[in-house]
Amino acid sequence: MANPLPIALDRSAKTPLSEQIRKAIVTAIDNGVLLPGARLPSWLDLAAQLGVARGTVRAAYDKLSDAQHIVSSKANGTTVAKRPEKAAKPDTPVAPGSVVELFQDLTGEGIFRMGVPAQDSLPAKLLARIRARAVRAELSAVTRTTDPRGELDLRREIAAHLAIARGLECSPAQIVITSGFSGGLGLALRVLGLEGHRAWMEDPGFPLTRKGLELGRLDVVPIPVDAHGLDVDHGIKYAPDAALAVVTPGQQAPLGPPLSPTRRAQLLDWAAQTGAWIIEDDYLGELQLDGRAAPALASLDRAGRVIHLGSFSKTISPTLRLGFLVAPEHVAAQFADVATCLVPAPGPAVQLSTAEFMRDGHYIRHLRRTKRVYCDSRDALTSALRTWSNDVQVAGLAVMLPLPDKANDIEIVRQVLAHGLAPAPLSPWYFSPKRAQSGLLLGIATVPDRGVPAACKRLFEAIRSQDRGDGAATSRRVRKPASP
Predict the structure, then answer these.
(1) Nearest-CA neighbor of 117 among 470, 478, 469, 444?
(2) How far is the C-alpha of 472 from the C-alpha of 91, rounded, in Å?
(3) Closest residue by Cα to residue 246 from 267, 269, 217, 215
(4) pLDDT tens string 309-337
């Protein structure tokens, strides 16, 4: 054992010193300070360390040996005995009603899960080889200086990709690599320093974004969404003094429509005239299944008010925890400073491997292949759902199934999780329970090749079971399947 045992003796106590030593060692073993196999000092050395008689320590060791806490041998000396592994302690429960609890509860593994890309279209073996090379490069260059904004190779590839796929021209110096979308949002809020100001956010909108703004101490103002995206007129009328707007202009989350050209121009004009900021959550990037994706909002920004956030969560994997932020040129240095001091980029290996994946053309081929897979999955899912319901809406990479007003979408999701189905409830995306619409969001990336009709049948059985007491409302939405 490298360090002396932390044993404090109380010579004024009635408890014998040998018993105090025994209890201290048992406590250290139980608390994991002394692990199985850890070597203890000899009873001679420990006696000298504690300033007690050798017989006192020996008596303590004898009791520990009798209780099978320690073992002694000539070869290894005195070591902590092996013990049966304790059952893992359950994770500390999160606060009731928190956004963490919601996502732990309702986004488990299963068919129709949102937020994860299809695994079948991902070139996993190729990525593993690239990643292995990147890890070796990282380990062989432990003394190299890394840029806290992120690896230059990756920032160059992202800049080139954005120019082609999103119409957004920027330099690598404007890009900061982040730990996913939430890392980018946190970085932006730190730089902008808008605590106490009002912020527009789409209603319905991503609950994690809403919670992030609240934790950033902004006064969040819900702005309704319609077929043209964020209702900018509503925001100007009811919160003209807002200092920030957070939008998903490419494909509104969760309803799906892109922000119309008229409203894009209106939103940019409002930000330019008032000095407000816009955070563009480009969560699906160019994964537009019908036609070419609309250009990024930041590509139209002439006043330097749009902060563009993107990630590789939907295109490669959310487990990468890899995203990026594009800052307007006039504030890029501020973003670099905050990233350097407070939120540096993820480790080099994941960045270097992603850069190589993009540089060699694998990423763009993967996106094309993924779009084809998603189109097939979307068509199969909507066809199966329309056997049961007239009201099926495609919303980005999900299919939205509206439910009767009295249906409890959260409870339905909890029921079907036990059957391997993991749709997301729509109602938590709304700010107010009074305005919330009940519905289910079915991710198309996790639609299986087979068994879609059976999965839909199970889903509608749960809907009918939960809503059986409201037959009139249900009959307008859900019908029996057509005869074959």
Answers:
(1) 444
(2) 43
(3) 267
(4) 999 999 999 988 999 999 999 999 999 99
